[in-house]
Amino acid sequence: MATGLVSGSSVLYCKLKLYKQHGYKEASWASGVTFKRSCGVSKCLQVREHEFFRTTFTNNRAPFRPLTTVSCLGNDATKYFDFAIIGSGVAGLRYALEVSKHGSVAVITKAEPHESNTNYAQGGVSAVLGPLDSVENHMRDTIVAGAYLCDEETVRVVCTEGPDRVRELIDLGASFDHGEDGNLHLAREGGHSHHRIVHAADMTGREIERALLKAVHDSPNIFMFEHHFAIDLLTSQDCSEIYCHGVDTLNSETQEVVRFMSKVTLLASGGAGHIYPSTTNPPVATGDGVAMAHRAQAVISNMEFVQFHPTALADEGLPTKPTKIRDNCFLITEAVRGDGGILYNLGMERFMLQYDERAELAPRDIVARSIDDQLKKRNEKYVLLDISHKPREEILAHFPNIAAECLRHGLDITSDPIPVVPAAHYMCGGVRAGLHGETNIRGLYVAGEVACTGLHGANRLASNSLLEALVFAQRAVQPSIEHMEDSHLDLSALDSWARPVIPVSLGNSVLEEITQRTRDVREELQSIMWDYVGILRSTSRLKMAERRIGELEAEWEEYLFQKGWEVSMVGLEAGEQETAYNHLPVFASKG
């Protein structure tokens, strides 16, 4: 019987019986099953004999030997690795390259390896590399942008270690833009007091992802598993400690459940932009990682802090409209404003100075709220971002990707303004992490957007996301290696969790109906989030959202059960939807 909100199935209550004479717990499944109002426990270990925990948690066992090939232990249904990484963005790949020097690594990715938020990052990586800049300047800009809600120690660590992480990327083959003097070209973006953004034109994330994927491909100890949707973390509990032992996944191409057993798990699954109808995030960003960690009883923090990027391309303002609706909005990088771009309403009135003395260079949250205010006051659908006063050659050199995309739709950005509108962009909260990416669950580390390190506070400073991912991926390496080497668990003996079930028994026609209904529910959920939990919020509107989401969830669950869906079943569409419901109460908990 599967547990956790696994692809739209149930969460089972896990009751733990304490055996004081042995100092360990026996986990067993409670007979009552609930689809809603669960205790939020992930796959808790099912124990068949009391002796099991004494043998697996004792400290006098010989360590389980490091694996060097996939075939050492495992089959199609269960695979064994020293390290399992959920996510193939910059955090997951950078971590994989380091830990692969010490053991076998599985990189589990929901779609193609390159399909991550990293690949869509245009602006760059912020780091103190200029002679006139300083760590203190970068710290101050980060804390101001975060509304003084950042963790100062985290900010200092990231800003101090950032330059070395950038140099390591260059050593790995990442190619960044250089100026005429031969030094790195450092751009400036909103909220930054100095030029400190290392970039590769307006496709920085794509270049970083390319370099990292090549290095991963060349590593003999890293194995990539594409199209594997992470369902639930595998955990056990010993007294007050929770341990993570891997993850269950759904191979969305073969429709098979694959279990990954590991000594260490890194959660680097990205954000949750598709909780909203308009987002710059790729379709894979549905918040699966936060939901899994929440069910496993990891601490979740600051989920109310969702950043809306002020300038996504407004398709309805283009001369030639796209022939189909985009999966995600096309981002117009912060660097356009940093390079001198000016915002106008449709009356060609520059408006940012009405809201902030920094004008277009104000932090993102201020610019997004200002645009939102203009749109509501003037009853308009978008505003205009104009960079056409800059030299044509400079525009095309700095923003070739944006220029090409706009030109495809009849807009020449060297002569005409760009229609833009805010869109959901980044999740500042997530799984609470310490200074080395550690969580309150032993053996589970987090890095990247899924983590809440305290760096961003209430609003992320532009180009600090790739920086944070790089720094924390590196900082998680040494404690992960130590945990792996100290592990005395025989993973093959530990594989005692019930397995999820593919719902083939329902038949194709019923499954197609469920898939379509789930998509309809998702659209309605996204609409509620945009209307009530968007750029501006109030207590009354959050309460309205909570009520409407609760009703929608109940209706959807009732529909699934009527169609014969059982608590142990898993499916990609339903899994993403249940993921959304699982952490929405955390989103709406604060204004």
UniProtKB/TrEMBL annotation:
<dbReference type="InterPro" id="IPR005288">
    <property type="entry name" value="NadB"/>
</dbReference>
<comment type="similarity">
    <text>Belongs to the FAD-dependent oxidoreductase 2 family. NadB subfamily.</text>
</comment>
<dbReference type="GO" id="GO:0009507">
    <property type="term" value="C:chloroplast"/>
</dbReference>
<keyword id="KW-0274">FAD</keyword>
<keyword id="KW-0662">Pyridine nucleotide biosynthesis</keyword>
<dbReference type="InterPro" id="IPR003953">
    <property type="entry name" value="FAD-dep_OxRdtase_2_FAD-bd"/>
</dbReference>
<dbReference type="InterPro" id="IPR036188">
    <property type="entry name" value="FAD/NAD-bd_sf"/>
</dbReference>
<dbReference type="InterPro" id="IPR027477">
    <property type="entry name" value="Succ_DH/fumarate_Rdtase_cat_sf"/>
</dbReference>
<protein>
    <recommendedName>
        <fullName>L-aspartate oxidase</fullName>
        <ecNumber>1.4.3.16</ecNumber>
    </recommendedName>
</protein>
<feature type="domain" description="FAD-dependent oxidoreductase 2 FAD-binding">
    <location>
        <begin position="82"/>
        <end position="466"/>
    </location>
</feature>
<keyword id="KW-0560">Oxidoreductase</keyword>
<comment type="pathway">
    <text>Cofactor biosynthesis; NAD(+) biosynthesis; iminoaspartate from L-aspartate (oxidase route): step 1/1.</text>
</comment>
<comment type="function">
    <text>Catalyzes the oxidation of L-aspartate to iminoaspartate.</text>
</comment>
<dbReference type="GO" id="GO:0009435">
    <property type="term" value="P:NAD+ biosynthetic process"/>
</dbReference>
<keyword id="KW-0285">Flavoprotein</keyword>
<dbReference type="GO" id="GO:0008734">
    <property type="term" value="F:L-aspartate oxidase activity"/>
</dbReference>
<dbReference type="InterPro" id="IPR037099">
    <property type="entry name" value="Fum_R/Succ_DH_flav-like_C_sf"/>
</dbReference>
<dbReference type="Pfam" id="PF00890">
    <property type="entry name" value="FAD_binding_2"/>
</dbReference>
